[in-house]
Write a structure and sequence with these properties.
Structural class: mainly alpha
Radius of gyration: 22 Å
Strand content: under 5%
Largest sheet: none
Order of helices and strands: HHHHHHHHHHH
Number of helices: 11
């Protein structure tokens, strides 16, 4: 394999810097001793804002709501995404490609379009915006991540393995437990972890479906308009980065060497 040239290495480092310098600045200003402006370099460093942030009961309430929403949205996505993948992986019918596009479309649509559509539907069916509607809204795009991971894995499983299990007398549930599930486990876990991360930091769709509820990203967005609380917001941003980074790292680890990680993008 040819080694990359110095120019390509430099381009890669420039790209990485462009992506990550803003995140490093957020981390730096979580420790600043100045509470209003973003002077550089900071006049001093302190851990004071961590104590202030962790003492905020409204922050913990928003965090707990985000965790619950992400867990329920992930469970719903695992169920519906897996069923859709099972139906689409082996079946052949006219319009299959168009139907597959309809399943994956929600993650490609702008969040504001998805949010308006969900709010219209919520009002039409008489639901009150709240935790349930946030979960349903997040599930619309989380299903895609599970579907893409599971359908890719199902296409790699030889039908002969399932046929052999049936020929040996295994019931459908036994075939699923001892043949399919071991093959699908990492794809399900990767899709679930990615769904959790996407749901946890979603803002735009949540804005339309939350009503008076505040998830952690919505809470942070509100805090940005309070100049004296900016360092507190930066501390919480670090917390969000840690919570979302761990599932993504696990997903990448599980998907390394394969092509099972798909659909990891929803603008928020």
């Amino acid at each position: 394999m040819n080694r990359p040239s110095t120019g390509l290495k430099a381009a890669a480092w420039i790209g990485a810097a462009f992506l990550h310098i803003p995140l490093l600045l957020i981390i730096l200003y979580a420790f600043t001793s100045e509470d209003r402006t973003y002077t550089f370099p900071p006049p001093g460093l302190t851990l004071r804002w961590f104590g202030v942030a962790f003492a905020r009961t409204d922050m913990w309430a928003a965090l707990w709501l985000s965790v619950r929403v992400a867990c329920f949205a992930t469970l719903l996505a695992l169920l519906l995404g897996s069923l859709a993948a099972a139906a689409m992986s082996r079946s052949h019918f006219r319009g299959k490609d168009a139907f597959s596009l309809l399943i994956t479309l929600p993650i490609a649509l702008p969040g504001i379009v998805t949010g308006i559509a969900l709010l219209t539907t919520i009002k039409r069916v008489g639901l009150e915006p709240g935790t349930l509607t946030i979960v349903l809204g997040h599930a619309t795009f989380c299903i895609v991540t599970v579907y893409n991971n599971v359908v890719a894995r199902l296409r790699r499983i030889s039908p002969s393995q399932i046929e052999a299990s049936s020929d040996l007398g295994a019931r459908p549930l036994q075939t699923f437990r001892y043949v399919l599930l071991p093959h699908l486990a990492t794809a399900l876990l990767a899709g679930g972890l990615l769904s959790f991360a996407l749901s946890f930091d979603e803002v735009i769709v949540t804005t339309f479906t939350a009503g008076s509820q505040q998830t952690l990203p919505i809470w942070m967005f509100g805090e940005l308009f309070k100049p004296r609380d900016r360092p507190v917001t930066n501390v919480v941003a670090i917390l969000v980065m840690l919570v979302t980074l761990l599932p993504i790292l696990l997903t990448q680890r599980l998907s390394s060497g394969g092509d099972d990680m798909h659909g990891g993008g929803k603008s928020s």
